[in-house]
UniProtKB/TrEMBL annotation:
A Pfam entry, by short name: Adenylate_cycl
Entry GO CC: cytoplasm
Catalytic activity entry: ATP = 3',5'-cyclic AMP + diphosphate
Family stated for the protein in its record: Belongs to the adenylyl cyclase class-1 family.
Documented EC number(s): 4.6.1.1
Name the UniProt record assigns to this protein: Adenylate cyclase
Record-annotated membrane-spanning stretches: none
Length: 262
């Protein structure tokens, strides 16, 4: 079992890196800069960095290590602007992971595609910390827009889908109308920019109905470590109510974005 899981992890990382490379290759320099630096800007918080605001803003992405591009950016700040970058403390950090979802790195990506970013965070953040993190994400959206890149951030509590919590219906948020369908889209299209791997990818299709039991077995056997994985839960069966709600949402969405709705 251990060797099987290790092989799956290697394949998962290889596919994720391939999708990152494809996303960058399909876009221009501004998109590449934003795409590459967003994890760094969320991991650190400094007045000389885009997205800075006063207050106890949550910072730090679990298991994050800067790549060559990100390290070069940090080195330039330290060398030319006298900035001293302080790493967040070790351990469980506020941000579980940063992921793109939707058309990015898919056949639907075009040179004018926007970025939908899920910033998954720990459940223990209080309301003030969540508001500060949301404000920082709004500032990062403005920074990206100044470079000609449209970015939308979505803060996702790691227990949101397990507790059936939902946002409001409007803009880019489908509220409670697509609980399972939204999670399904995330699992199918997510690209990990930084943070924990997605646990659902390690569960075989024939174990979906017993998702929690299978995951607990992997933990009990020691082949997986719980704090190294993002666990948003399994995909339960789609109810008639959600199917109907999703249809209404598609009609609502088609008013402003007919091609996305299709």
């Amino acid at each position: 079992m251990y060797l099987y899981i290790e092989t799956l992890k290697q394949r998962l990382d290889a596919i994720n890196q391939l999708r990152v490379d494809r996303a960058l290759a399909a876009m221009g320099p501004a998109f590449q800069q934003v795409y590459s630096l967003l994890p760094t800007l969320l991991h650190y918080h400094h007045p000389l960095m885009p997205g800075y605001l006063d207050g106890n803003v949550p910072k730090g992405i679990c298991l994050y290590t800067p790549d060559e591009t990100q390290r070069h950016y940090l080195n330039e700040l330290e060398l030319y602007r006298g900035m001293s970058v302080q790493d967040p403390p070790k351990g469980e950090l506020p941000i579980t992971g940063v992921y793109t979802m939707g058309s990015t790195s898919s056949v639907g990506q075009s040179c004018s595609s926007d970025l939908d970013i899920w910033v998954c965070h720990q459940s223990w953040l209080d309301s003030e910390e969540r508001q500060l993190l949301q404000r920082k994400c709004s500032l990062l959206e403005s920074w990206a827009a100044s470079l000609g890149v449209e970015v939308s951030f979505f803060l996702i509590d790691e227990n949101r889908f397990r507790h059936n919590e939902s946002g409001s219906l409007g803009g880019e948020d489908c509220g409670s109308t697509q609980h399972i369908l939204l999670l399904d889209e995330f699992y199918r299209t997510a690209v990990r920019l930084a943070g924990k791997r997605i646990l659902w990818n390690m569960v075989p299709c024939d174990e979906e109905e017993h998702y929690d039991d299978y995951v607990m077995t992997l933990y009990a056997q020691g082949v997986l470590t719980p704090n190294e994985w993002l666990d948003l839960g399994g995909l339960s069966s789609l109810s008639a109510e959600e199917y109907f709600g999703a249809s209404l949402w598609q009609l609502y969405k088609s008013i402003d974005s007919p091609y996305k709705a299709v």
